Amino acid sequence: MVASPVVRAAIGTDDADRCAAILTDAFADDPVTIWLIPEPDDRAEAFYGYFHLFVRHGQDVGTVHLAGDHGCAVWLPSDAPDATVLDDELQRLCGRHAPRFTQFGQIVHDRHPAGPKHDYLMLLGTTTTSQGRGLGSALLSHRQHQLDPTGMPTYLEATTQRSAKGLYARAGYRPHGHPIQFPDGLQTYPLWRDPQPPEK
Hints:
Blueprint: E1 7-9, H1 12-26, H2 31-36, H3 40-61, E2 63-67, E3 71-77, H4 87-94, H5 98-111, E4 119-126, H6 135-147, E5 154-158, H7 161-165, H8 167-170, E6 174-175, E7 180-181, E8 187-193
Parallel strand pairs: 4-5
Antiparallel strand pairs: 1-2, 2-3, 3-4, 5-8, 6-8, 7-8
Helix pairs in contact: 1-3, 3-4
Domain N-acetyltransferase: 5-196
GO molecular function: acyltransferase activity, transferring groups other than amino-acyl groups
Region (Disordered): 179-200
């Protein structure tokens, strides 16, 4: 029997470094990251900085969790300060690809539900060598057990149909409107989860 992964809060610079490395590996060949930066050599360097920026933002205003050393989730409250304060740093990190990031962020922002108040799963990833071992489910379950008693729903955008219909559907997420459309045929899948009553 495989032991359940230990999920804990990601605190401080060392954990932020670890989370950024996990997410960079997890999203190396993701449809969204390929759409944002088509060139593989540019992608890894830019996304490590990008993920590090938003992990630190999550540590400041939201919740960041680690599952062992191979899984990370970044949650933001829906009333968190607007991340546009990070725009200058994003421009520096993304260089010539910055307009694509700006376009992506605006499209996602325009489809983000205005209410009710909710927790937003901005990022969830596990290292490629650890996928399929329950780390993603453990990260979701950990946060849901914290939020369900408070009556707080959650929202996310899945980057693939596979994760939308697999990992997230098993965790209770359901489609929230039609897929989000981007230029060149990219789609993401908005999902919503209402809080669940305690098991009897």
